[in-house]
């Protein structure tokens, strides 16, 4: 167990983090990467919906066009039969069918116009989302480069030396000795597990660590890592 003022103990975790080449938390650059990645995912979903909507509308247009062709053929056949028919009832039925086909053709023509308007809107929406996806991909790539540049091994090394200078020599010596033994000099105590070996500790050990004096840094009973509460 180390003796170290409570307001200095966090430096042990920061030292371990720096020497492991990690970061104690996300940088503004990391947060920007996360934000842009979320926006990009949303835009890609919107793009897929626009593509699907355009595809569905295109199928609807093809169906309407096929129905119109069938109606035209039906009208031609009815007119041909009407020209040859002499029976009054037959002529009446053919005329009724022609009128029905004409009404249906008018309805389909209206639906076709609406579908053409809709697919134009879907395609414009698709183009908009494609452009937005491209822009976000470029922004994300730039943000990722910035995040990588904001955190380098040299930064970690300089930070580690800075932290060491703020700690008592005996604490640094004990930390280094423990690091040689287990690979971890210190870690944060999660309340249940050691951050070094990641083992969940028995209830009795947890209670002992929690009840240790505030100006002391207890060790993990399994790996010896100094645990900062």
Largest sheet: 2 strands, antiparallel
Write out the strand line-up for the largest beta sheet, numbering strands in chain order. 1-3
Ends apart, CA distance between termini = 13 Å
* Inertia-based shape: rod-shaped
What gyration radius follows from the Cα positions, in whole Å?
Answer: 37 Å
Residues in helices, as a percent range: over 70%
Counting DSSP H or I runs of 4 or more residues, the number of helices is 6
Provide the domain count: 2
How would you describe this structure to a colleague?
The structure is a single chain. This protein folds into two domains: 2-22 and 154-227, Helix Hairpins (Orthogonal Bundle); 28-151. By secondary structure, it is mostly helical. It contains six helices and four strands, in the order βαααααβαββ. The radius of gyration is 37 Å and the shape is rod-shaped. 72% of the residues lie in helices and 4% in strands. InterPro entries: CT398_CC_hairpin, Zf-RING_7. Residues 74-93, 136-160 are annotated as: Disordered. Residues 193-227 form the C4-type zinc ribbon domain.
Summarize the model shown.
By secondary structure, the protein is mainly α.
List the helices and strands and how they pair.
Blueprint: E1 2-3, H1 10-19, H2 28-84, H3 88-149, H4 153-166, H5 169-182, E2 186-188, H6 203-210, E3 216-217, E4 226-228
Parallel strand pairs: 2-4
Antiparallel strand pairs: 1-3
Helix pairs in contact: 1-4, 2-3
């Amino acid at each position: 167990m180390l003796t170290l003022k409570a307001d200095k103990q966090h430096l042990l975790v920061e030292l371990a983090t720096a020497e492991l080449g990690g970061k104690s938390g996300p940088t503004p650059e990391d947060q920007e990467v996360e934000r842009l990645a979320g926006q990009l995912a949303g835009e890609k979903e919107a793009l897929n919906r626009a593509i699907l909507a355009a595809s569905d509308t295109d199928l609807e247009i093809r169906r309407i066009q096929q129905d119109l062709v069938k109606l035209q053929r039906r009208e031609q056949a009815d007119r041909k039969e009407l020209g040859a028919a002499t029976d009054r009832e037959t002529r009446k039925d053919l005329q009724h069918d022609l009128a029905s086909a004409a009404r249906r053709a008018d309805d389909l023509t209206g639906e076709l116009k609406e579908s053409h308007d809709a697919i134009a809107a879907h395609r414009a929406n698709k183009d908009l989302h494609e452009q937005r996806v491209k822009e976000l991909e470029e922004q994300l790539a730039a943000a990722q480069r910035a995040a990588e540049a904001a955190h380098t091994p040299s930064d970690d090394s300089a930070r580690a030396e800075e932290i060491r200078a703020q700690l008592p020599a005996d604490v640094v010596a004990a930390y280094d000795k423990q690091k040689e033994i287990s690979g971890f000099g210190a870690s944060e105590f999660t309340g249940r597990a050691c951050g070094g070996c990641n083992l969940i500790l028995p209830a009795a050990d947890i209670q002992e660590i929690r009840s240790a004096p505030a100006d002391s840094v207890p060790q993990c009973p399994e790996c010896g890592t100094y645990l900062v509460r």
